[in-house]
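Need the bound structure for nicotinamide-adenine-dinucleotide, inputs here:
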Amino acid sequence: MQAADRQRFAAVSMMIDDTLSELIRRRPRTLVLTGAGLSAESGIPTFRDAQTGLWSRYSPTELASPEAFESDPERVLDWYDWRRALIARSRPNAGHTAVKRLLDALPGARLVTQNVDGLHQLAGARDAIELHGNIWRLRCAAPGCRHERYWSDRTAPAPRSCPDCGKILRPGVVWFGESLPAQALASAWQLAEVAEFVIVAGTSGLVHPAAALPFHALEQGARVVEINPDRTALSQAAHWHLACSSGTALPALADLLDAP
Ligand code: NAD
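Answer from helper R.:
Posting the output first, comments after.
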């Protein structure tokens, strides 16, 4: 470990009080909820970060909404090609690895993610519930056509026309203003209902209904820890707010399970 990492690790260890350490060591039924901040340390910008380079003049809603796709599909698909290329060059970071360790070590633990990049799965996380879909899935945008496929070739831009009907393919993600996949949302809600402990990492809590999950868990009596360098609407209500990066805080939490 480098000196700077050691310092960061020491700082987060000070934020983890005895109550939180003991809770994790009791191996509670745990729900991990992640957002775009978790992948920031892999080099994938969050939506709240300014869009970079070519795309800086557009807001996320001008690129990730049904209206944007309707008015300028090529622009939206170009942006998704750019994002896929960025993700293809990225690797899971220490936060993703720690989530996998937590899932493996805590009986019945489950992951619900808002991320569409697939990095949790690349890090080995099992049974991730993807609330907002996956950027590597493509589906036909034409009403009535059910074509859907997984695009695993990370070296080439995704195809744009549907092999079944010839109409345009869109990314299999949930855009602003669209409904979440019903099964994923129902499962996430159920997990929030029964969780004893919820780890919320790297999400602004601005995108609903995902943002309501930790509050629902709190109402049911769960203990909640939030990991985010910034404060959010959850920070006050959560039992702990670890104001640091997920790549530092999540490994520190996972390490508690290794301690004798
Ligand atoms: P968001 O962009 O609204 O918020 C990101 C949050 O992460 C912010 O609160 C920020 O303070 C925090 N953050 C930044 N760096 C962090 C770090 N190193 N460690 C911990 N926290 C950090 O993201 P959201 O709440 O997930 O919602 C935005 C929507 O954007 C979601 O629908 C999501 O699907 C989509 N999105 C996904 C990706 C991805 O898959 N990687 C990337 C961008 C946006």
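Comments: The CA atoms of residues 203 and 224 lie 14 Å apart. The chain has a mean pLDDT of 93.
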